[in-house]
Amino acid sequence: MDAIVLQILNGLDKGSAYALIALGLTLIFGTLGVVNFAHGALFMIGAFCAVILQRIFKVSYLSDEPSGTDFLGNPKFEEVYYVNKWFGDAAGAWVQDWSVPLAILFAAPIMVFVGYAMERGLIKHFYKRPHADQILVTFGLAIVLQEVIKYFFGANPIQVSAPDALDGIVNIGEWLGLTVAYPVWRIVWFFFALTIIAAVFAFLQFTTFGMVVRAGMADRETVGLLGINIDKRFTLMFGLAAAVAGLAGVMYTPTLSPNYNIGMDFLVLSFVVVVVGGMGSLPGAVLAGFLLGILQSFASMNEVKSLLPGIDQIIIYLVAIVILLTRPRGLMGRKGVMED
Amino acid sequence: MKLFGLNQKDTRFLLIVIALTMLTPILLQPFAEGTALAQFNAGYPDLMQRFAIFGIFAIGFNILFGLTGYLSFGHAAFLGVGSYSAVWMFKLLSMNVLPAIILAIIISGLFALVIGYVSLRRSGIYFSILTLAFAQMSFNLAYSVLTPITNGETGLQLALDDPRILDATPTTSSLPVTNLFGLAMNSSTQVEFLGRVWTFQVGYYFCAVIAILAFYLSLRIFRSPFGLMLRAVKSNQQRMNYTGLNSRPYTLAAFVISGMYAGLAGGLLASMDPLAGAERMQWTASGEVVLMTILGGAGTLMGPVLGAGFIKYFENIFSKINDTILSQWFAFLPDGLEDFLIAIIYPFIGKGWHLTLGILFMLVVIFLPGGLVEGGQRIAKMFRRKSKDEVEASADTTPAE
Amino acid sequence: MGILEVKGVNKRFGGLQALGDVNLSIQENSVHAIIGPNGAGKSTLLNVLVGKLIPDSGSVMFDGQSVLGRKPHEICQMGISRVFQTPEIFTDLTVLENMLIPCFAKRDGAFALHPFETVQHEKSVIETAEAMLEEVKLLDKRHMHAAAMSRGDKRRLEMAMCLVQQPRLLLLDEPTAGMARADTNNTIDLLKEIQDKRDITMAIIEHDMHVVFSLAERITVLAQGTPLVEETPENIKGHPKVREAYLGEAQV
Fold it and tell me: Quick check: B192 pLDDT over 80?
């Protein structure tokens, strides 16, 4: 029983990442009708925002006065962090410790800007072009973004730590009488993901802006005929989708050390998630993300692997293939969409 | 003159291709050794082999993507399967490359039949995602579960104690080399003329002959009713179906054919260098052949070959340029300007080749979707005075290129 | 017994009864028009007739064989050809290539693999294609890109592509939609020619009454998913029920 709960939690952990990226992908596909192969790169950029902020906080200078001697007898100069100098030692240390959550504030505007720039600069020229062209140009963009990051940050994963207070392990199942040791940060991450998802849905459901977007997702032409400038709203939606992916990237860094290729890794899986959930269905994308995460988690249990070796690697793809063949509109896609 | 069932224009085309391919070792070494420009030579055996092999890969991919418009991200899986099959042939039967390649083609064809049958039940982006899923699945399986067949991460290699039933028992303690009925692939002859030494390698010529055959086949397909039907799939699948044609078997045939081309390329890769690794099967490796085809010009005859050659050539060149070479080039400039130029060029060379490739690819997709072939045609048009007949003749030439 | 027998076809979409108890009999070698106000269900009926839409109940028999649920290429193999509202042709191919495709389809069937043929060398197929192009006066445009043609020419090409396969039933979905007077008249002439020269049944869905009265031998009026009236053109003209369907009760 403990093992099962643990796997479910693991599944929700990965599943949250899938769900958030898939959510953004579906927003873009549903509103703009664009297949965005660069979406994984947005996740990656968010992760590197956290890295950048961490590095900013660790910028230091050598103090003027030596504070002692090193083992050779030469004067030793201390590295002093700027944040310490400006905010005092205690605050400085706190800022460094909490760099990941603080990165949310840092990354959000950056991601919105990146999304906005992408849409205005590139994507909007591809609305009328066939899906294949969209895939190709965003694929090219993903490569470019990934290589740029690789150039500046190297080819190795960069460790980013969660705040100390949230870095420990806790026994979740205590109140159920179980022993399930689980890292605190992953629980934080899960609730963060839920919050973002809830916020996006609330935004779409309860604001006028959101209502227009939902209408546009259902029938873009009619909305345009109503005299509503859907394009500007769509640009903002792209920025929003980028922000969702980016923030997911930020908060996932302690779990998965950012590297230039995490974008591509998540991209394939995210598309698979979107297809399973039903292209154009937001709840479908989220649901499929969590379900596939849990499925993958269970598939990696040793008991399962011994029965079906390698199943954890391919389970998601198998499910996608089965769904694409039997129910192409996905779990929650609209009826009649893509029923070839 | 008409040869092999081709019309006059195509025969000329084929002969030119044959001539160029046979003379490649000379044509790609225009600069004498030791000169500053010698680094731009491309006449190295393994580079030329790669031109031929990836040209074959791209030609096959073009038959699917260029003609039918179906974008597959999974063709690297067939490349990998071809390589693995060939290496297994080397281990079990013989170091003779011919059976290895034949097996590679057959196995990848079967593989493509299965994957194609399933994937083609959908079209458009769903098809692409299905091929993506299959490719990643194959890659993951090759890496982990199927290690008895693929040897996982290390890759499948030859060993001294391989059965090699049809070969004579080895006398030396070194690994045997791939050969064609005794003629070793890595052997070469050197000829001296024009004051320089030229190397002609068996391996390259083997690949080159196969590439010519592959090209000829694609030429025949382009000109056949079958090729016309494939273009109909891309042009208007609905009309095609209502004209009484079932588009499904046509696209499946194209898929299998392109899969076999990929398998052939994989088999040749292994024949030149007998090992096979799983990384050849990743979907991003599929991305490379997509790049080549689009860069060269999808749907044209020469496009994929040009694209493959272009990418492999510049991959080679760019990786070799580093900042010392750059500073040699720009030495004549004042220091400040020299440093500035080096600083901005630096990210795009050496290991930054992929960055350059990505940008180039984006530019092609955005501005020149017809690739290098379209670029060449546009330049040619600028030099030619356009007459009214040309408008109608161009309907003829566009597929020919 | 007509060549196309539609019996008791019903189709609901959610709360909307798109087709209600449709009975239709189209006689061989006749021209039968289906008219009706917007929303009457004409397009829905057409989709049922080509097997694309499966009705909730009822049957559609073409020459004794059921049409329902068949794939488009099977429909064509049965002898039914379809002309679309917007001309559906192979826009990035030349006119000749457009014509060659149905010719090859006629010769080879749904799928054939002749790996060593060259299009250029298939003289008889090319001759058939060019003869058909000559008939619709498009032969001199045969090397033109189909996309560059006028809409009227595209329509002629599409019809020629259907006719070259010698179908027994030609379904036309608003063939003159969006056309100017001149083009419409050309289309009417073309259809008249086809009607005279060939043994072919035509079912036309049309809005343009001029077209309908020039060509139709029988007219079915569809209103709110149900056939209201089926008559000859003369009897349709003054029919009160037809007036009512189009203009509403208030009209005197």
Answer: no
C240: CB partners within 8 A, 6+ apart: none
Cα dihedral across residues C42, C43, C44, C50: positive or negative: positive
Q: Which two tokens stand for residue B184?
A: 């070793």
Which chains have 3 or more CB–CB distances shorter than 8 Å to chain A? B
Q: Residue C145 carries which DSSP code?
A: B
Residues in chain C with CB shorter than 8 Å from the CB of B241 are 71-73, 76
Would you say B62 and B305 are in contact if contact means Cβ atoms under 8 Å apart?
A: no
Contact criterion met (CB < 8 Å) for A340 and B122: yes
Residue (of B324, B319, B325, B326) closest to B353 by Cα position: B319
Dihedral sign computed on CA atoms, order B32, B34, B40, B41: positive
Is residue A218 a contact partner of residue A288, using CB atoms and an 8 Å limit?
A: no
Local structure of residue B169 (DSSP, 8 states): P
Minimal Cβ distance to C117: which of B224, B249, B396: B224
Is residue A16 within 8 A of residue A289, CB to CB? The reply is yes
- Name the H helices within B69-201: 75-92, 97-119, 124-143, 147-150
**pTM for this one?**
0.87
Burial class (CB in 10 A: 0-12, 13-18, 19+), C28: middle
Instruction: Note which residues in 343-382 of chain B have CB less than 8 A from chain A.
Output: 347, 352, 354-355, 357-359, 361-362, 365-366, 369
Query: Is ipTM beyond 0.90?
Result: no
Is the pLDDT confidence value at C64 over 80? yes
Task: Find residues 240-269 of chain B whose CB sits inside 8 Å of chain C.
Answer: 240-247, 249-250, 253
Q: Which tokens belong to A10?
A: 């693991």
Three-state secondary-structure class, residue C20: strand
B223, B234, B239, B248: which to substitute to probe chain C, counting the most C Cβ within 10 Å?
B239
Subunit contact B241:C115, Cβ cutoff 8 A: no
For chain A, give the number of residues.
340
Question: B165: how many CB neighbours lie within 10 A of its CB?
Answer: 8
Evaluate whether A177 touches A115 at the Cβ level (below 8 Å): no
User: pLDDT tens digits for B162-184?
Assistant: 777 777 776 677 777 778 777 77
Contact of B9 with chain C, judged by CB distance below 8 Å, is answered with no
Please answer yes or no on whether B244 and C120 come within 8 Å at the CB atom: no
pLDDT tens-digit map of A222-258: 776 777 777 777 788 889 999 999 999 999 998 888 9
Range of weakest confidence among A285-299, B19-33, B104-118, C79-93: B19-33
Residue B397 has pLDDT above 70, yes or no: no
Element (H, E) at A335: none
Q: Which residues contact A49 (CB under 8 A, 6 or more apart)?
A: A103, A106, A107, A110, A111, A246, A249, A250
Contact yes or no for B395 and C144 at CB 8 A:
yes
Q: Do C100 and B228 touch (CB under 8 A)?
A: yes
Beta carbons of B223 and C165 less than 8 Å apart = no
Q: Determine the angle formed by the axes of helices B247-272 and B225-242, rounding to 10 degrees.
A: 140
Size of interface B-C (CB pairs under 8 A): 114
Residue B265 pLDDT > 90: yes
Q: What residues does C94 pair with on adjacent strands? A: C145
Banded pLDDT at B283 (limits 50, 70, 90): confident
